[in-house]
Amino acid sequence: MYFKEVPFPFVVSFIEARDVWKYYGDYPALRGVNIEIKEGEFRCIIGPSGSGKTTLLSLIGGLDRVSRGYLRVGPYELHKLSNTELDRYRNEFLGFVFQLYYLIPRMTVLENVELPLIARGVDPGRRRKLALEALEMVGLRNKARRRPNELSGGEQQRVAIARAIVSRPRLLLADEPTGNLDSKTAAVIMDIFSKLNRELGMTIVMVTHNLEIIGNCHRVSRISDGVITRTYDVPQTHETLDTLIRELMTTV
Ligand SMILES: Nc1ncnc2c1ncn2[C@@H]1O[C@H](COP(=O)(O)OP(=O)(O)OP(=O)(O)O)[C@@H](O)[C@H]1O
């Protein structure tokens, strides 16, 4: 009997950008980006300063609009959405983690994590339960009553991650999430991302300068002068990973 081999990836891409351009005034920060990311994938985006990483993430996150081209995330064709529809997309579909934690100092850790649920009208009992679950996932349930300034930088970033995932978004976007952290704390943060990806099936797109942490991703795309120049599968063995990191170091 003859079995036709199913091509991989079989599923339709979760994120699809085709010839995406973004202008700031006359300046083209993105110059025809093409990228496909599968659901459940953990994708890193690397590239030199000013190459367009944050711009691309802002477009995928619906924080800004494409100037030209096709950009779809799940069922949402972002280039076609109105501002209200974009707001809804962000609220229902996404979690964001940034380099700075943006926690509210006068609120407790628990209240900070509950915030996105207040905006969604979730009742207080359920809010508390979900926020504690999110804190459990980042290993900070025991610090729920503290205030952000009583925590280390790594712990504050873990609170920011709990806040980003409290409504169980399908897509988590992270912009230099380890940018302010030492390498040991960065590794802890990356283990949390890997766990969210593995256990909750959350698709993650992470922009980073830090090549030490790309071993946690499935694939890494390199962007240069506003164009994705290459996408690599991240190797599973240390030796081949080191070879890839050395190759990428010459370009980032
Ligand atoms: N709001 C803006 N107005 C004008 N130009 C902008 C704006 N945002 C970004 N740019 C320009 O677009 C280009 C891409 O910026 P972007 O922030 O996407 O780069 P990046 O790869 O994330 O850089 P970095 O690693 O330094 O954060 C840069 O030349 C930047 O100066």
Automatic annotation (TrEMBL):
Coiled coil regions in record: none
Recorded GO MF terms: ATP binding
InterPro entries referenced in this protein's UniProt entry, alphabetically: AAA+_ATPase, ABC_transporter-like_ATP-bd, ABC_transporter-like_CS, MacB-like_ATP-bd, P-loop_NTPase
Keyword line: ATP-binding, Nucleotide-binding, Transport
ABC transporter domain ranges (all copies): 15-250
Organism: Vulcanisaeta souniana JCM 11219
Family classification: Belongs to the ABC transporter superfamily.
Entry protein name: ABC transporter ATP-binding protein
Gene3D superfamilies membership: P-loop containing nucleotide triphosphate hydrolases (3.40.50.300)
A Pfam family assignment: ABC_tran
PANTHER family (alphabetical): ABC TRANSPORTER ATP-BINDING PROTEIN MG467-RELATED, LIPOPROTEIN-RELEASING SYSTEM ATP-BINDING PROTEIN LOLD
Domain of life: Archaea
